[in-house]
TrEMBL record:
<dbReference type="Pfam" id="PF03358">
    <property type="entry name" value="FMN_red"/>
</dbReference>
<dbReference type="InterPro" id="IPR029039">
    <property type="entry name" value="Flavoprotein-like_sf"/>
</dbReference>
<protein>
    <submittedName>
        <fullName>Multimeric flavodoxin WrbA</fullName>
    </submittedName>
</protein>
<dbReference type="InterPro" id="IPR005025">
    <property type="entry name" value="FMN_Rdtase-like_dom"/>
</dbReference>
<feature type="domain" description="NADPH-dependent FMN reductase-like">
    <location>
        <begin position="15"/>
        <end position="165"/>
    </location>
</feature>
Length: 241
């Protein structure tokens, strides 16, 4: 059996934000929050600054622009929440399964993240380079993998980097039944869920550390303004040979 390697790095300069897509307003118990805490505790043991945002507690407008008050909405708290994403190294999207899919709050969050996907970082890359993304899913019906596929695809599409096994979740038996934090559910004791949540958390930490130490993703071949100006980064169109 291989020896357990020593912990490779200091993570105390990293920041992580968790978005809880529960439909329950605070202070009502959120099963998704219960699973978030498993991951969050690991990060905080190693000095990572964490924050959890329960989106349903905030007046976040629907839409795909950074500030929907400029597009007909009277109020929108997203501009006040977005700095938590902007300053984070790790973003974890968490939420429950409803009707086999992500909750409306999770979907709204993805749309509001997408609103910033056309912005640029200091290197001239898309704004979410080189942030690391992951997801946590809870429910008492099938659908963890479906929901995770949607979240992780969306995050990588707008510029997040996704590590190996970047998702974890818990579901009870199919049909009405106990939720993750309910007495006797078996959720907090699930070795499978605890293992996957732990592995996800460490993979997020390792990749965030690697990217931060490397100064992010190299800025060659992925600069929108350079492409617009005519730089083609070794692309050749066969029709013009």
């Amino acid at each position: 059996m291989n020896a357990i390697p020593a912990m490779p790095a200091d993570f105390s300069d990293l920041k992580a934000v968790y978005f809880n897509g529960t439909l329950k307003k605070s202070p009502e118990t959120s099963n998704t929050q219960g699973l978030i805490e498993v991951s969050r505790r690991i990060m905080e043991k190693h000095g990572v600054t964490t924050r959890v945002i329960r989106t349903v507690d905030h007046d976040i407008a629907s839409g795909v622009y950074p500030d929907m008050r400029e597009h007909g909405w009277r109020t929108d708290e997203w501009p006040e929440l977005y700095p938590a994403v902007r300053d984070a190294d790790i973003v974890v999207v968490a939420g429950p399964i409803w009707l086999g899919d992500n909750s409306s709050q999770t979907k709204k969050l993805i749309e509001r993240l997408y609103a910033h996907s056309g912005e640029l970082n200091g290197k001239g890359q898309w704004a979410f380079y080189p942030k690391v993304g992951g997801c946590l899913i809870t429910g008492n019906e099938d659908g963890i993998k479906h929901c995770a596929m949607n979240v992780l695809y969306s995050l990588q599409h707008i510029g997040f980097t996704i590590p190996p096994q970047a998702d974890a979740g818990w579901i009870g038996a199919v049909g009405p039944g106990p939720s993750y934090l309910d007495e006797g559910s078996g959720g907090p004791e699930s070795d499978f869920t605890n293992r996957n949540t732990t592995f996800m958390t460490w993979n997020l930490l390792h990749l965030a550390r690697m990217l931060k130490d490397a100064g992010g993703i190299p800025a060659y071949g992925n600069l929108p303004d350079a492409w617009k100006a005519g730089t083609r980064f070794d692309f050749e169109n066969p029709e013009y040979r």
